[in-house]
Amino acid sequence: MNKLELARRRNEIKILLVISFTIFAMVCEIAFGYITNSMSLIAQGYHMSMHVLTLGLTYIAYVLARKLKNSPRFENGTYKIGVLAGYTSSIFLGLAGIHIFIEASERFFKPTSIQFNEAIYVAIFALIINFICITIMEGSFHRHKHKKTKDYNYKAAYYHILSDILVSILTIIALVVGKFFNCVYLDSLTGILGAILIIVWAIKLLKNTTKILIDMK
Predict the structure, then answer these.
(1) For labeling, which of 2, 42, 78, 85 is most exposed (least CB within 10 Å)?
(2) Is there a contact between 59 and 207 (Cβ–Cβ < 8 Å)?
(3) How far apart are CA 152 and CA 83, in angstroms?
(4) What is the C-alpha separation between 27 and 34, in angstroms, rounded?
(5) Residues 67-94: pLDDT tens digits?
């Protein structure tokens, strides 16, 4: 096993570990989001569910690339399997963003009461989980500079988690401000902002992976 294969094998193990943390946090956020009527917390939970899907695709791509690396059916190697996984995850991510945007917009015009204390605790918990995940993944995706050795599969997963940290911070700010100023509209606005960030990220990821798949400079 050469250095590149060893590095990607380490990334594969890291992704599996991050998936475990992410699933746990996702379940807590969505469940408590509906219990506390927090749109921003629900948005964060669904956003994280897309990370579970993305990370799952990332892991599957690693396994397939590793197991099929000597297959004669792949004339140029299995490099693009990971890129294809990133392309697919960007589509699902964009659909999730649209769903969150619609639901948050409806909550803005028909606001409901929010149990701020419970929602804040869960949002902080999710942020801690995200920081643990990004720490596990830190430092691995930028080691290879050449296009054919750079791990776009891992890089896509890394930036998904990084964007989740940003949404978590926005969620906490909205809940804290909403609690002290009794502003339920801010929670919905944060959900809308989070949805826009998800959609923007999905579009960027879709463009980048499409260029690689069609060998566009």
Answers:
(1) 2
(2) no
(3) 6
(4) 11
(5) 777 777 766 667 777 778 778 877 877 8
Burial of 23 (0-12, 13-18, 19+ CB in 10 A): middle
Q: How far apart are CA 55 and CA 181, in angstroms?
A: 37
- At 65, the amino acid letter reads A
Q: Look at the chain and count its residues.
A: 217
Q: pTM to 2 decimals? A: 0.68
Separation of alpha carbons 24 and 1, rounded Å: 33
Instruction: Identify which of 52, 50, 60 has the alpha carbon closest to the alpha carbon of residue 85.
Output: 60
End-to-end distance of the chain based on CA atoms, in angstroms?
31
Q: Are 40 and 73 in contact (CB under 8 A)?
A: no
Confidence of residue 204 (pLDDT cuts 50, 70, 90): confident
Tokens of 145: 């500079």
CB atoms within 10 A of CB 211: 12
**Would you state the structure tokens that stand for residue 209, as one six-digit string?**
């992976």
Residues 2, 212: Cα–Cα separation, whole Å: 24
